Amino acid sequence: MKKKVLLLLISCFLFPFCVKAEDYKMDLSCDPVVAKDDIMTCKMRVLSGDMVFHQISGILPSSSDFQLLNFESGPMNCTSTSKTFECTSEAGIKAPNIIFSFSSKVVHEGDYQKETETLETTISKINEETVGQLIESNKIVFDKMHQSKLTNLSVRGEKLYPTFDSNIFHYELTTTSDSVTISGTLQDASSTVNIKNLSSHTVKLSYGANPISIKVTAKDGTKSTYVITAVREDHRSDDNKLQLLSVNGEQILLEENKYNYEIEVESNVAKPNILYAASNSSSTIDMIGPKELNVGNNQYIINVTSEKGNTLQYVLVIKRKAEVKSEDTKLKKLKIKNVDSSISFDMDVTSYDLHLPKKVSTLDLEVEVNDPKSTYEIIGNENLKNNSRVQIKVTAENGKVGTYSIFIQKDSTNYMPFIIGTLIFLCLVGAGVFIYLLKKKKEKEIESYLDDTIVMKHAKEDELGDTIVVKKDE
Domain ranges in the chain? Predict the structure, then answer.
């Protein structure tokens, strides 16, 4: 449906005679307009031969699309309001010389697309006897485009740079807030926008530059994009360094620009107690590593993240020593509880002599090893006799064996006097026998000597008596 742009009613009073309506004509032409704030100028001429007009009055355009700026009429004297005009001439003006012109400003909320509109103009001619009326229809062409722009654009509590203009599409603002609220108005209500609530749209801001696009699409598909770059200032700390690092109470000396550290712990340390603290309290720390230590190297990654979100990585290597098994084979305590006489124990002395009563057949020993990881075993502590040996074998954690020995001496009957007496008796007997035998031998020797003497005597006698006597062999 075409929109009526202008209705102009001109009443023509012709003095002193009256003519018929068909005796005159009107011609109207207007300059084309393109966009809002353009000026449309229209010219109207009355064509009616040699007719003379003394007074002309009429109604000016009242459409919401236009705003009257001025009204002029060639040789006639005219006055006008925003809606009407009146022109007079005492001498009268012939129709071909009457030219009316008026200018109107386009105020429609939107650009204009090319459309054809009909401008209807009515001229009435009145005298004392008759009223004649001519309706003249004239077509004017002007460009009318549907709007794809904004009337205004603002950010609550913030200042845009540059100041908003519907033909400027890029703006900037700087803020410390974490969000901004945008509001704007479409020039053409039939346009659409990519923001649901253009009158109050809140956008969350990250630190740094945040581009915010407002895309306006006109009914005919024409598009305009306004971009606000909201820069959120970042005053957060970027400190992501450690201030303290310790392992099982041993503090590690942290050095500037050094992020790899090593520490050694004993083999009996199964779980590390790692303490750390950041230089800035707003930083966060997380650590990745084993809960229990293996023998050898154990790596821990310590990530320190600043308030700004930048992360610095520290690497901590905890070296757990290999387990060294004890070789301690010493006793801490050795005590004999069931005899009055005991030993003077010294862990470095491994051999002891012990005198026992004849009736004691076993030792009641109290033993304690020097190293709790060592074990001991008692050997030979039954049916003890003289010269028996009791052994306490101590086995160290690494398998090494050490031995403590107790040599037993028992009380017995004293046969020595008897033995001595027996020996003396035997000696006396032997001496007596020896003397006896010696005496007997001596007697035999004497007897033999006497026998030999007699024989020799007889031999001599025989020799003397020429008698040969043979010597008796012994």
Answer: 7-144, 150-232, 242-320, 331-410, 417-474
The CATH class of the 150-232 domain is mainly beta
Q: Which of 48, 133, 134 is nearest to 95 (CA)?
A: 48
Each residue of 340-374: pLDDT tens digit?
Answer: 767 889 999 999 999 888 888 899 999 999 999 99
User: Cα–Cα distance between 21 and 19 in angstroms, integer?
Assistant: 7
- Paired sense of beta strands 170-175 and 131-144, if any: unpaired
Nearest to 156 by CA among 194, 113, 202: 202
**Highest CATH level, class, for 7-144:** mainly beta
Please choose, from the candidates 339, 343, 341, 354, the residue with its C-alpha nearest in 3D space to the C-alpha of residue 389.
354
Main-chain phi, psi angles of 425, to 5 degrees: -60, -45
Instruction: Compute φ and ψ for 2, nearest 5 degrees.
Output: -80, 145
Contact 86, 57 (CB under 8 A): yes
| pTM, two decimal places | 0.40
Please tell us whether the domain made up of 331-410 is placed in CATH 2.60.40.2340.
yes
pLDDT lower than 50: segments of the chain: 1-23, 62, 109-144, 467-474
Answer for the pair 214, 224: CB distance below 8 angstroms, yes or no.
no
Q: Print burial letters for 133-160: b (CB count within 10 Å at least 16), e (below 16).
A: ebebebebebebbbbbbbeebbbeebeb
Write out the two tokens for 85: 């005009």
CA 427 to chain centre: 109
| Residue 403 CA: distances (Å) to CA of 337, 339, 352, 365 | 20, 22, 12, 15
How many Å apart are CA 368 and CA 328, to the nearest integer?
A: 13
Query: How many angstroms separate the CA atoms of 362 and 408, rounded?
Result: 10
Same fold yes or no, 7-144 and 150-232: yes
3-state helix, strand, coil in the chain (%, to 5): 10, 45, 40
- For the segment 311-322, what is each residue's pLDDT rounded down to a tens digit? 999 999 999 998
Helix (H) or strand (E) holding 423: helix 416-464
Looking at the domain 242-320, which fold is it?
A: Immunoglobulin-like (2.60.40)
Distance CA 291, CA 268 (A): 15
Residue with tokens 């012994």: 474
DSSP string, 119-172: EEEEEEEE-SS-EEEEEEEEEEEEEE----SEEEEEETT---BS---TT--EEE
CA 200/CA 182 separation, integer angstroms = 6
